[in-house]
Amino acid sequence: MTYNIHHANPPSKEETGEIDLDAIVHVIRKENPDLVALQEVDVNTKRSGKGNQAEIIAGKLGMKAFFGRAIDHQGGFYGVAILSRYPLLETSVTPLPEDAAPASEDRVLATAKVKLPGGMVIRFGSTHLDVDSPENREQQVKAINAIAAKENMPFIVAGDFNAVPESSAVRELDKRFTRTCVSDCAPTIPVDKPDRAIDFIAYSKEAPFKVVSQKVIPERYASDHLPVVATLRY
């Protein structure tokens, strides 16, 4: 699963700033994924309160969590995260480039090594690309592709790419990865009347995966994005 959780602030509660972590937990629990890439996650911020949102969500689900800080925000941190049913090993956070628009919000790729049932070991990553600059997004994907090119194990990357399938950034992604949705991707944003797909799950072309299913979950309360769920067989 990949899910931009909007720091657990439901769009209908944006003016009041209400935080509803249980709504996010409910969405994830219903789909019962093994691995989750989260974006827009708060840790100890003024708007969301004390606590690591990724760890709180993981605790309620019986999962492991790893948070990747992108920026300092309101006295705490803001970034992406990985949730997993299996132990997370060799975790890392890699800053992504933003040469085209250096004033843009910093972006990162968080990754972890995961040993799956049956013994396969994979790299799983969560990312959230630049929202404003197409050139930054393309450069950020090139950086992710360069990391994937050096990886000797199957690599799954998922997240909010802030780019539609026809964009230069997603075309760049497709050079190194296979998206679980290749054509006619169901829209993931805006949540009230979705009209474009910008959230994707993809795996390295060398990985021995086959897509069993791919779907966008029509859950319109918990966040301003719809979550994406894919089942891969190996």
TrEMBL record:
<feature type="domain" description="Endonuclease/exonuclease/phosphatase">
    <location>
        <begin position="1"/>
        <end position="225"/>
    </location>
</feature>
<dbReference type="Pfam" id="PF03372">
    <property type="entry name" value="Exo_endo_phos"/>
</dbReference>
<dbReference type="InterPro" id="IPR005135">
    <property type="entry name" value="Endo/exonuclease/phosphatase"/>
</dbReference>
<protein>
    <recommendedName>
        <fullName>Endonuclease/exonuclease/phosphatase domain-containing protein</fullName>
    </recommendedName>
</protein>
<dbReference type="InterPro" id="IPR051916">
    <property type="entry name" value="GPI-anchor_lipid_remodeler"/>
</dbReference>
<dbReference type="InterPro" id="IPR036691">
    <property type="entry name" value="Endo/exonu/phosph_ase_sf"/>
</dbReference>
